[in-house]
Amino acid sequence: MTISVLLADDQHLVRAGFRSLLKRARDIVVLGEASTGDEAVRTARALRPDVVLMDIRMPGLDGIAATRQIVADPQLQRCRVVILTTFETDEYVFTALAAGASGFLTKDVEPDGLRHAVRVVAAGEALLSPSVTRRVVGQLAHRPAVGTDGGARLAVLTEREREIVRLVASGLSNDDIAGHLVISPLTAKTHVTRAIAKLGVRDRVQLVILAYETGLVRPGEAGLP
């Protein structure tokens, strides 16, 4: 399967560098480029890429606002946004995830890391380390969704799926979950995929956010690994 990518950055040299790095992967193709947030949204709607590599600071509409528009577009449900920035701070991570981004990378990422990131996000996985997940969800936990009935929203899950979601929200990978529950990594991944589908969220990152917003998990909760 070929993964299509849109590059959104206001610096031509940055876009050229990322395009060159991605061209070396046989399973990745760069469909187009954008130098502003508005152009990124328009181009995403026209080309419908699998992944958008989005800069934060751009003229006019910034990358965060552009991400919100892309995520909210029903025609771009399969499109995933990875935020690329030179600023590795909790503020940017939190804002990007709250806007609907599926991942976060700094621009000094290694070539192999960039290509791996595109593949991971295109497959619907989270692009955050467990340590970053734990930091950010602590902030998200203090922003409950207005009017959300957590119990009703989670009622569609089985007891095992609820347990899996709690472990995902604590920052565990599929392999970690498999070891903790003594199941295979494939079984763990299947449970996560089913939970994502049942809850109607876009990906693993949004699953973590929902777990905290609905009160399924709370910061510092005892009993989590």
Architecture overview:
The chain starts with a strand and ends in a 12-residue tail after the last helix. It is globular and about 50 Å long. It has two domains: 3-127, 3-Layer(aba) Sandwich (Rossmann fold), CATH 3.40.50; 138-213, Response regulator (Rossmann fold), CATH 3.40.50. A five-stranded parallel beta sheet has the order 2-1-3-4-5, sandwiched between helices. The protein is of the alpha/beta class and 225 residues long. 51% of the residues lie in helices and 12% in strands. The protein has helices at 12-23, 37-47, 63-72, 90-99, 111-122, 130-140, 150-154, 159-169, 174-181, 185-199, 204-213; strands at 3-8, 28-34, 51-55, 80-85, 103-106.
Question: Which terms would index this structure?
Answer:
225 residues; alpha/beta; Rossmann fold
CATH class category name of the largest domain: Alpha Beta
Instruction: Please state the average pLDDT score.
Output: 84
Tally of discrete structural domains: 2
CATH architecture annotation name of the largest domain = 3-Layer(aba) Sandwich
Structural class: alpha/beta
Question: At the fourth CATH level, what is the homologous superfamily of the largest domain?
Answer: Response regulator
